[in-house]
Amino acid sequence: MTDQHVALVTGATGLLGRQIVKAFNQAGWKTVGTGLTRADPPTIIKADLADKTAIEDVVDKTTPHIVVHCAANRFPDQCDANPSAARELNVRATQRLADVTSSRSIPLIYISTDYVFPGLPGESPYEVTSTPSPPNLYGQTKLEGEKALLDITKDQGLGIVIRVPVLYGAVDEGTGNKESAINVLMDAVWKVQENDAKVVMDDWAQRYPTNTEDVARVCVDVATKYLNPTEDRTSLPKILQFSSEDRMTKYQICEVLAEIMGLSLDRMVANKEGGAQDSGVPRPYDTHLSSQSLEDLDDEEATPVDPSTTRTTK
Question: What are the Cα distances from residue 29, in Å, to 213, 215, 299?
Fold first, then answer.
């Protein structure tokens, strides 16, 4: 770029946010992130997304060309346990951010989820034109966040939704594998190496583990496309989807990890019953996202699952 562009990334200390910051930096952008409990100025600014004035201050100080909104409560069990907190972050914070960015003519990329779809057997893959019907509160709040963004920016072309499935990638050393529903499976594989251990693992729901580095690359490419002065932003798609094509259950992922590590899964039991987890939060069977809208926009392809990106030391 002749003039260095600036990207502002919310949730920049999270699993995906860290990779997005890294990808924009590698692409030659000046990148600033926001965080709350793990803020680390000047690269990660502390910002409370519940405070619109705080959002305005951060946006006005950093003057970004684009904002990528990663901050979210992305754990279904936590959303059900505290619905008001989930709706505050996934919906109302998105509304505030969209109000601030749209009033300053700044495009906003909103990271959403495959859980906006019901995931009933035989329905996938879901296109961007498919009718959402979330199976749980997490998916519902993310869908409400989508609607809030697109309603606020509908006449400007400043709102872009990118839906992604379950993610894996490099985790924070302090947080560990629990940052990712895929990485944490390595812990389960290690657990069943203990003599008295028994782990029941889901072998029903179909997952499409997608690498955070791929999603970050997509965000950079989309930002570049939507900021291109030769493009009519109002005519570009408002909703995009990106997913790996690798289809596996959690149990099958554990099999792959165990094979790579030369470990046994004799004490792991495959659960093919499906439905809800122990917490009772409903999970869909198959929410496979079609990436056609993104492929039509640009040539993007997900990297095959590489379990070596998970932490493999006990």
Answer: 16, 17, 22
Query: pLDDT tens across 168-222, in order?
Result: 999 998 889 999 999 999 999 999 999 999 999 999 999 999 999 999 999 999 9
Q: Report the candidate in 296, 189, 301, 202 with the shortest Cα–Cα distance to residue 245.
A: 301
285 is an active site residue: no
Q: Which 8-state DSSP code applies to residue 89?
A: I
| Segment (H or E) for 226 | helix 212-227
Taking the C-alpha atoms of residue 85 and residue 314, their distance in angstroms, rounded to an integer, is 34
Q: Which of 138, 168, 208, 226 is catalytic?
A: 138
Helix or strand holding residue 260 (H, E):
helix 250-261
Q: Which residues of the chain have pLDDT under 70?
A: 1-2, 275-279, 298-314
User: Which among 1, 70, 74 is positioned nearest to 33, based on CA atoms?
Assistant: 70
Backbone angles phi, psi at 310, to 5 degrees: -85, 160
